[in-house]
Amino acid sequence: MSSPTLTKDEDARPATPGPAEGPAPERPDTTPTALSRFLGNPKAVVLVCAVLVVVVSALVSGSGAWPGALTADVKSPLNDLDDWLVDNRDTHWLFLYFLLHFSNAAESSVDSITSLFDSMGWIGVTVIGTLIAWAGGGADLSRRALRTGATGLAVFLICGILGVWEPTMETLALMVVAVVCAAVLGFLLGLASGLSDRFERILRPVFDTMQVMPAFAFLLPLVLLFNIGTPSALIATVIYASPPIARLTALGLRSADPAALEASASLGASGWQQLVTAKLPLARKQMMLGLNQTIMMCLSMVVLASLIGGGGLGDEIYQALGALKIGEALVAGVAVVLLAVLLDRTTAAAGERLDDVVKAGLTKTMARLRRAVWGLIAVLIALFAAIGSAIGEGEWPDGWTVDFTNPIDTAVNWLTDHIGSGIPVLGGTITWAEGFTESVLNPLRSGLLATPWWALALLVAVIGWIVGTWRAALTGVICLALVGWMSLWDVAMDTLSQVLAGLVLTVILGVVVGILCARIDRVERIMRPVLDTMQTMPQFVYLIPVIALVGQNRTGGILAAVIYAAPAVIRITAQGLRQVDPAAMEAATSLGATGRQQLFGVQLPLARKSILVALNQGVVLVLSMVVIAGLIGGGALGYMVVQGLSKGNLSQGFPAGIAIVCLGIMLDRLSQPSKGRVRD
Amino acid sequence: MNPNRIRNTAFAGVGIVSVLALATGCGAADTKAGGDDKVVLAEPSWVGATANAAVVKKLLEDEMDVKVEAKQMDEPVAFDALNSGKADAILEDWHGVPKKQKKYVEDKKTVVSGGDLGVVGHIGWFVPKYWADKHPDVVKDYKKLNKYYKDFKTSESGDKGHFIGAAPSYSQHDKGLIKNLGMKFKHIPSGAEAAQLKELKRLYDAKKPFLTYWWEPQWMNEQIDMVEVKLPKYTKGCEVPESKAKCGYETNQLEKFMNKDFANSDSDAAKFIKNFKWSTKDQNKVAGMIAGKKMDPEDAAAAWIKDNKSTWEKWIPKKK
Amino acid sequence: MSEAPEATDAPKSAERAESTASAGTEPVFSVRNLWKVFGPKASKIPGDTSLTGLSATELRERTGCTAAVRDVSFDVEKREVFVVMGLSGSGKSTLVRCLTRLIEPTAGKVDFNGEDVVGMDKDALRDLRRHRASMVFQNFGLLPHRSVIDNVAYGLEIQGMGKAERRERAAEMVDKVGLQGLGERRPGQLSGGQQQRVGLARALAVDPQVLLFDEPFSALDPLIRRDMQEEVIRLHREEGRTMIFITHDLSEALRLGDRIALMRDGAIVQLGTPEEIVANPADDYVRDFVRDVPREQVISVRRAMRPLDASEAADATGGATLAPDTLVSEAIEAVARSGESCRVVENGRTIGIVDHASLLTVVAGINREGESDGGGDKAKEVAAV
């Protein structure tokens, strides 16, 4: 339901003021049967009425600015707060006795891990890393253990050969501390919300909000509290990455086999005994899944946090881009992707192994062997830390690196030069981008700006009510009102227009490629590593080449957003299509349906739910990237956050950050039918 | 994972937490972090700053055996860091954060000037030479830009000309200036310096007209040829507040700033940094090697040091 | 019908109840007027006489509450196998959980060996669960991450027993339930029947006074179910432990139960020995329930015989004789063999005669007129007390 409503919503508006040349979704049928069916559906009628109101009021009023009387001056108090923070950061007890402990602890723990890596030397780190990966995969000669071990070895060696050993170690050190902290914090929160309904009620909306919150939006407050540098980066990472493990721990605790829990209670187990002997062990699989997600989120945030002094590979990328060294940035990006692959494979293998142990048990010798391996790792860490520098240099030897940066630069330059404008007849990406801006983005933005705020609020309420509940409608309207109240209406509409345009492109691309992946195995095989890379490659890396392709403008940001968000949409769509009940497919085949008929008659309708999930995911991802695109000319809210960040200006960046979160929550609620209903 | 492993993991977790707790200790926290023997340089994100930091770092480490860490931070943050002692010196300040500068240097006196860098910084509005050659009238008078604003129209700027603004952390008052001078242009900011450079390069290669916020020293000036448009003359304070700005930019003696304690410590490193002074030409040479020839900053610094002994010898404080 | 249940308690055990009572032993569980109501303001319902009489649907419409257990009373005697039977939704599983307060009863009294379970504090209740009453569950409730031995030892671990000792005890139990050599397996590697043996061993390991079974075999294949029933019968024969057994399977109830409480909509419809229930259903619902039971295998000749008529002397001798507890199926054989009627003799006195006609009446399921209705009403009243 939400898919057609959303697309209709934005199709309708550009269609009235100017020519709609953008990707036009299907229009409602006008055949009599369709009409009668449509009239029989009160929700559809209400929606169409709301859209009509929006269009008509937009045409009549021509300007829809939020009324000045309904705004508040949020800047002055924020400026005061900003001044207070700067003045008191070194003297106030809140900092001296509380916050500074955090930042000092963060700094010193990261430092100590870094120096540990340093003293272990590259040989030590590689050996230990490989051993840990191997042990995570099972510490035996099974294919899984050997494969993860080999991945570990390869990743470390490649990072060395690429010449990014040092930043890789910095990132890894930050990761170690961040993952441990995020896991502990997440676990405790998960425990609380898994065991207590009150905590659950409090934490659930917080986690929900954090899930739609673009990482970028909450860097600024941290910078003000903790200053730029490792502590801010670490704390931002921990906050950003702990929700998945908390969520999944709570889920695991709550979904533990009730029969086992009852059995445990019937034997007289106390609450603590039940937790330790039954609930936690039963939730292990979920917790492992949560840990995996947490680790991946840590990695993406650690890279992004280079904006606030995180150091490591992210910094490498950021600095390389500052001097337009695309090749260097790409090499560092590849190291990030490799780290992601390693961490993902290792935790996934550990999860699988956990499953096996639960299913089949563990022989005593194997158990002993595994313990021995972990012991060995501990001993080796100590040993390498003591003598590592004696057996090899601390850093990867200079002569052993291969420089890929120049060839990459050449290739990227050639590519952007030729695709940018050199294609005969078709023009090139720059021409297309201009066309896109003029025929889609600009009309969409002026449409949104021309729509009176009350009409837009009405539309949001109606959509929210149709796809979700009155609560979704209310949330959406409140978010919208909050944006207006902070005097950010016009800027937010600019961002919104970009998000909507990006979303349509992402969903079209995602669903089409998803269908191809689901139906053609070869496409799937080719796409899998591509998607992996796209999902884990730090966003920065492709921001600059994007400028070469389409220029520094909003379209560039949207292009980056599509690159960033499409993989998730493709994955979910393909998965949904493949999971369609085989019986239904067989029935269709036996009735002699063609492939096309199968797709449109069976698969797509049955996979509707996954496609809606994909849409919801797409909304969140596109928004977060459109915001980052403030770095390359996306302007609007994203730029305000960038500006606030780089100037340390709370009054500018903070309201923009809040507005982004508001947009995120609103779009999330409007595209989340099933969840909204379940929740009520 | 067997129960033992879980137990071990739990112990490890508790261990790490308690180590953290120990590390934080009790009572008031130390406001100054990092080792004392290390000199921390605040390095803003532009390449010229990288060149400064690379040369200073290389010389301090090789010639004077002082450990140096260069931390990436832009001016606004750098001043906070200088104030708190998290950074010891910034080598190139464009006076882009007058508010903070006043607060720390004049009011709190926690930050002191380290003298001029020697490099002269200049900001202005620039157009590419190929376009200026065809329209020489513009160069002498900014008002003439309005005559040609149509040349600068893009999909972003709508029916006005497109003015490529600076990255957010850079000193600028173009938005107010455009309005107050009645320019038919729309100020469209760059998200980052890199984005602006890439965009200029793209437009330059395509020989398109553009109007941009630009500055020197800037390494890319060796690759592209730009001509400045003359703006109303700068007088002190004419750009504050931005909404009333009606003038161009000051020609800046770029300045060094240091943490007061570091500056007063009388250490060789502090003296060296006070002595450090080089020309725009020198800096461009190093910056060009870093950005244009894509050399490692350390290698670029080493190359420059090799050829310019006479320049840097004067910076090293005399042994007592 | 003379032997219709008379008190809250039931009758084959009328004698036994008397005898135990006279011996001075209390019932193991004594349940009086137990209620469990789910829904808003549930606690108000049991005390409200205008509501207690309503049917389940009426009650739900009126108050939004569901009474899973309504006003149930019974005693469970020592060494008895007490079966609670009913279709799903009849409240039997809730009832058994109320006994150890896995579900808190809404109202009523539960005594365990004379101690008030409802009033127990946390520790006393935990002690009850740890040492005196353990339960076997329909879905086994095993911990998948533990080996069979560790699952069996789980109850002992909760009691705080040391590792070596509890594993030793558990190993014995594993052998006892016929899982020799499977101690190190994981539950996931066992068949359903084997898993339930683990569940049984886990309950036995703590050596409880009472075993509670909540439909333990209904998830199993028929053949395995039969094996497991034999296992329970064997255990009961060997140990004589008191058992409360919940089932929805009538044949299982008849096979295992010394007494059966038949539940419908949360209330006990009839409580009696298998024979009483089959021979003398309290109402149409029970009659329907027991319709397909091979009656000759449940009913004894005491119930099938006709009284002596005037021509027959109580002390007569000669001809074939049968004990009153002989099952009808066996009596048929005897009567067929002797070709005539048989005397039913108890304590040397003939108390009745069985012949073709009387036995056929049982097999055909024809009740003697007038009796069933009267008895049924009475039983209903009893159950409703």
TrEMBL record, chain A:
<feature type="transmembrane region" description="Helical">
    <location>
        <begin position="215"/>
        <end position="241"/>
    </location>
</feature>
<dbReference type="Pfam" id="PF00528">
    <property type="entry name" value="BPD_transp_1"/>
</dbReference>
<keyword id="KW-0472">Membrane</keyword>
<keyword id="KW-0812">Transmembrane</keyword>
<protein>
    <submittedName>
        <fullName>ABC transporter permease subunit</fullName>
    </submittedName>
</protein>
<keyword id="KW-1003">Cell membrane</keyword>
<dbReference type="InterPro" id="IPR000515">
    <property type="entry name" value="MetI-like"/>
</dbReference>
<feature type="transmembrane region" description="Helical">
    <location>
        <begin position="122"/>
        <end position="139"/>
    </location>
</feature>
<feature type="transmembrane region" description="Helical">
    <location>
        <begin position="448"/>
        <end position="467"/>
    </location>
</feature>
<feature type="transmembrane region" description="Helical">
    <location>
        <begin position="618"/>
        <end position="641"/>
    </location>
</feature>
<feature type="transmembrane region" description="Helical">
    <location>
        <begin position="44"/>
        <end position="66"/>
    </location>
</feature>
<dbReference type="InterPro" id="IPR035906">
    <property type="entry name" value="MetI-like_sf"/>
</dbReference>
<comment type="similarity">
    <text>Belongs to the binding-protein-dependent transport system permease family.</text>
</comment>
<feature type="transmembrane region" description="Helical">
    <location>
        <begin position="320"/>
        <end position="343"/>
    </location>
</feature>
<feature type="transmembrane region" description="Helical">
    <location>
        <begin position="145"/>
        <end position="165"/>
    </location>
</feature>
UniProtKB/TrEMBL annotation, chain B:
<protein>
    <submittedName>
        <fullName>Glycine betaine ABC transporter substrate-binding protein</fullName>
    </submittedName>
</protein>
<dbReference type="Pfam" id="PF04069">
    <property type="entry name" value="OpuAC"/>
</dbReference>
<keyword id="KW-0732">Signal</keyword>
<feature type="signal peptide">
    <location>
        <begin position="1"/>
        <end position="23"/>
    </location>
</feature>
<feature type="domain" description="ABC-type glycine betaine transport system substrate-binding">
    <location>
        <begin position="38"/>
        <end position="306"/>
    </location>
</feature>
<dbReference type="InterPro" id="IPR007210">
    <property type="entry name" value="ABC_Gly_betaine_transp_sub-bd"/>
</dbReference>
From TrEMBL, chain C:
<protein>
    <submittedName>
        <fullName>Glycine betaine/L-proline ABC transporter ATP-binding protein</fullName>
    </submittedName>
</protein>
<dbReference type="InterPro" id="IPR003593">
    <property type="entry name" value="AAA+_ATPase"/>
</dbReference>
<keyword id="KW-0547">Nucleotide-binding</keyword>
<dbReference type="InterPro" id="IPR003439">
    <property type="entry name" value="ABC_transporter-like_ATP-bd"/>
</dbReference>
<dbReference type="InterPro" id="IPR005892">
    <property type="entry name" value="Gly-betaine_transp_ATP-bd"/>
</dbReference>
<keyword id="KW-0067">ATP-binding</keyword>
<comment type="similarity">
    <text>Belongs to the ABC transporter superfamily.</text>
</comment>
<dbReference type="GO" id="GO:0005524">
    <property type="term" value="F:ATP binding"/>
</dbReference>
<feature type="region of interest" description="Disordered">
    <location>
        <begin position="1"/>
        <end position="25"/>
    </location>
</feature>
<dbReference type="InterPro" id="IPR051921">
    <property type="entry name" value="ABC_osmolyte_uptake_ATP-bind"/>
</dbReference>
<dbReference type="InterPro" id="IPR027417">
    <property type="entry name" value="P-loop_NTPase"/>
</dbReference>
<feature type="domain" description="ABC transporter">
    <location>
        <begin position="54"/>
        <end position="290"/>
    </location>
</feature>
<dbReference type="Pfam" id="PF00005">
    <property type="entry name" value="ABC_tran"/>
</dbReference>
<dbReference type="InterPro" id="IPR017871">
    <property type="entry name" value="ABC_transporter-like_CS"/>
</dbReference>
<keyword id="KW-0813">Transport</keyword>
